[in-house]
Design a protein that fits this description.
Shape: globular
Number of strands: 6
CATH class: Alpha Beta
Order of helices and strands: EHHEHEHEHHEEH
Number of domains: 1
Number of helices: 7
Structural class: alpha/beta
Helix content: 40-55%
Strand content: 15-25%
CATH topology: Undecaprenyl pyrophosphate synthetase
Length: about 220
Amino acid sequence: MNPLNHVAIIMDGNGRWGLEHKNSRNEGHKSGLNTVEKIIKETIKQKINYLTLYVFSTENWNRPKKEIDYLFNLLENFLLKKIKVLNKQNIKLKIIGVKKFSKKLNNLLKLSEKKTAENTKLQINLALNYGSKHEILNAIKNIRKKNVKINENNFQKYLQTKNIPDPELLIRTGNTKRLSNFLLWQLAYAEIFFEKKLWPDFNEKDYVRIIKRFKKIKRNFGNI
């Protein structure tokens, strides 16, 4: 049985689900939050230590302003309502990406990280305004500035995921088969599962099914 310490998820399909079921992309994002809560609970149940969620990419700024504003309001409300609950559950929040949001949201993100910094049961990494190409280029620039020897170990120290183990498993919902500029370095040896279901339809049974399949995979890492 393969050990599983870190799961990364591309939560794709909220907008499409909203249009199909509620005639509104925003309603899909709202419904997607319910799935997030279910998956967090199941992650704790499965004793997985790290969960990284792709919330908002650097490319998502190309979406309509009304949808972007709605997404950030949804995130603000979620943190305001749930941060105490997450803290009680011993869950740590970590933001990866560039914090270039409203002053209110930036402060709320910093506060959420600070309040939960010492928690140990589960670390949830929220990828916000995150793009892997930007992360890699920025790491190279910082290494050159500090004149550090370039090798794999040193390079990892300049990524936004430093001190976070690489994911063993990536799940992408929404029946789209690509990485979309997500954790390109970190996913080098991850097992990837593409799920047909849209994110709001994804549930605990689907999650457990994928985890069970992952644990039975023969992982060679280049060996026979």
